[in-house]
Amino acid sequence: MYNKLIRTNMKVDKYIFVKNRNLRCLGIVILLIFCLHLNVVRAVNKEKTKTVTGLVRDAHTKEPISAARISVIHGKASATTDEKGVFKIDVSSKTAFLHVSAFEYNVREYSIQGKDSIVIDLYSDIFTNYYKVIDGYNGTVDNSTLPASAKEANDLSKSSAISADEAIQTELGGDVRTISRSGVAGIGASLFIRGLNSLNLNAQPLFIVDGVILDNLYDVKSIHEGFFSNPLDNIDVNDIESITVMKDGASIYGSKAANGVVLIKTKRAKDMVTKISLNMMTGITTIPSTIPVMNGNDYKTYVTNILGTSGLTNDEISQQPYLNDNTARSTYNIYHNNTNWNNQIYQTGLTNSYSINVSGGDEKALYYFSMGYTGNNGVVKSTDMQRYNLRWNADVNLSKLITLSINTLYSNINRKLVDDGVNNYTSPTWLSLIKSPFLSPNTFTSLGEKTTGYAFTDVFNVGNPSAIIDFSNNTLKQNTFNIGLKPVLHFSPVFSLSEQFNYNLNKTTENYYRPYLYTTPIFILGIGNSYNERINQVMRNNSLFSDTRLNFEKQFDRFNRLTAFIGTRYLFDYYESDYIDGHNSLSNSSTDLVGSFTNLYTSGINDLTKSISNYMNVDYSYDNRYLLNTAMSIDG
Q1: Is the pTM of this model over 0.85?
Q2: Which end of the chain has fewer surrounding CB within 10 Å, N or C?
């Protein structure tokens, strides 16, 4: 046994010796590569500078551009063109990149590729600029160093959009597939960046506002049919600095970003100069074009043909009140009309938006303050929206090492709504398509005179869309408050530590009423026929967000640049809703739930979600042409 142990130990020692020898060899190889790299870098740095002569001109007219600014990327040399568009600049590398900019022209990056004389064409700034700085996951980055999966819109000053997703639909429609939810102002659109695949049964992208993950409430159901809650509606488009759409975000934000990421950055003060801006916008929305429908006479012919297949005789068919042409009958005027029901429910929509913002500051702090109002009268009669919003962003220098960013938001939204979509009971837009055109929205006296009163549900069991619009009492009130703090400690020239904290409170109150006599009764199991209905729902959403991040950024020399960050992210979300409905008050004047309605039903939701993510990202650039990126995220 003792001999066997000795032999075994000898084998182990031999294995350790071999392993250590291999490690020493590997270390020597790495050292040689490192030394070789240093020698190469030194050799490159010792290259003699050369003078490059160039001409900057307009790409369309070929006319020279004066006062164009040229600089070497990651270098110190710079130059300016003369009145003939000519410049001279000293470069230390045959592969140097030049950064060229001029007034009213797009920026361009140009590689000299060892040439002594070059010609650079610049394009007007009315075209999309490829060589620009955009907002990424960790601050601004050069668009030319990103993959084609990132697009940005940063000029929304002329946009007529009310919400951010509407702005995406108009500004980035080529990169994001959008489907408008309806014609309701501010309801937004469904966005599809990576198609309809998802791990969480949700194809919508992840929204990030000023670095904070936003709950898009995609699983929250409104009591108003056809209406969707849109959290982006709380942000005034005039307060948005830029919107960046990125198809690949799972490596940083985990499975939540499997469908892409939308980064929204709000405006902040850029300098100490006090600036006051006033924005006013007025727009109209025309009456929508609908599918063609039959007039009164055509519909009578259609009904006659249908009744002919029902087994009724010709005499029985002719005695139907809507087919009897005897003018002496008291019901003649009721069934002999030619009503265009679209004209009864649609109108020209009007939108007004006003906002004022002030920015400025001093050496200690910069601030941005804005307040605005948006009002809309919808294309469906009686529908409207009013939004009031306040925003205050600030950047404070607490000391030489510590800075603090503050984001605050308050918004108040009030809406009047009606049901929308394919609904045979309460959707005026749908009923206007199926309602008989030979009927009138109003009643008639026994003498055949039209009154101002509304007609009840007709003989075809179809409700009156005009009466539904007038008697429905459907409202939505939403209040949102948000505050965010981000202190940053710059404890060295290359290292910084940040902690982003954000609290968001959203409260929404919805009221709904289905009128009596003007809608078709609905059979409900356990209740029977429901002739009218009253619903109330209150929803509260509290969110806490924390993101702790260590950043590293260093330009080692003219060629080597390294940017990295590592962090942990915590998200706490509590959603609560209270719901109550009642039926059959049998009166349009008694709409109080307590005391007027029967069969009261209550329910609610208490949903608590907590998540934590650990993530890291490393970007390495050599000579601004060879790029290496690695990222990782772990969700829990």
Answers
A1: no
A2: N
